[in-house]
Prior knowledge:
The protein is α/β, with parallel strands linked by helices.
Amino acid sequence: MNDHLDFEITERWILSSRGRKNRVNPHKPYALLVEKELTPSGQVEDAGVIFLTNRECPFHCLMCDLWKNTTDEPVQAGAIPNQIEWALKKMPGVKHLKLYNSGSFFDHMAVRKEDYKKIASLLNGLKTVIVESHPSMINEKCLVFRDMLKPDLQVALGLETVHTELLKRLNKKMTLEDFRNSTSFLTGNGILTRAFILLKPPFLSESEGVYWAERSIDFAFDAGVECCIVIPVRAGNGAMDILMDRNYFSPPDIRSLEEVIEYGIKLKAGRVFSDVWDLSLFSKCKKCIDKRIDRLTEMNLNQKIIREVVCAC
């Protein structure tokens, strides 16, 4: 890490490194899916995921690529409830729903407070609703929305890493104390939290990436988080590609992800999931990649360590 302190990361540089956004429709979510997830009660059930089309997040984190599917201006009042209503018709029967808006649900410029009531009415038949937020936007507004809901509310927070120097360089604009305080506020008000944790952000070696991901899991559970999602860092947002070209970043190996997930599950402190989206990016071996993806998926669903994949790679 110390060898890379001469490379300055600024918000202006992050923004100037970007390419063009994708064309999106402010009246429809830009993606949706249904996935299996192990619930806190120990049951594997379908969870719907709606990727809401919304304004760009005001926090321009170094590793983020969610800006690609955002609007330049806030969407109109009523747009988010309409997107949710449209998407729910495509996923009948789901009992758990993740509302991801490429930013913070409690950002008043993204999801308007006057839309809360309509959104809550659309979600009446669910067991759980999960939204995402930056820790700085956790406040009484969360309780207002919670009190309108019949299903349980959960909030996902981006912890990213407990490497304090690196956290600053990610342009996250938060401290570990901010994260702990936000988690404490939520759990103190009966709202379960989950943490997003990065595996091998830029400026770390492979072994350092594993070490700091594990320490981040430790911190998250100690802070009161119920669930950790480990996300291997990838290129593709402009800034990360430049860092990769300059040898400040390389994607983690899928075996490192396996190691971190095994560590987290063995703690038995809460659920630990691997982000399994496009995991072929993190393996050069075509012989074992499918088996490794299947293994990580199975560990997500049963929270048990299963037999390792043996391969010549």
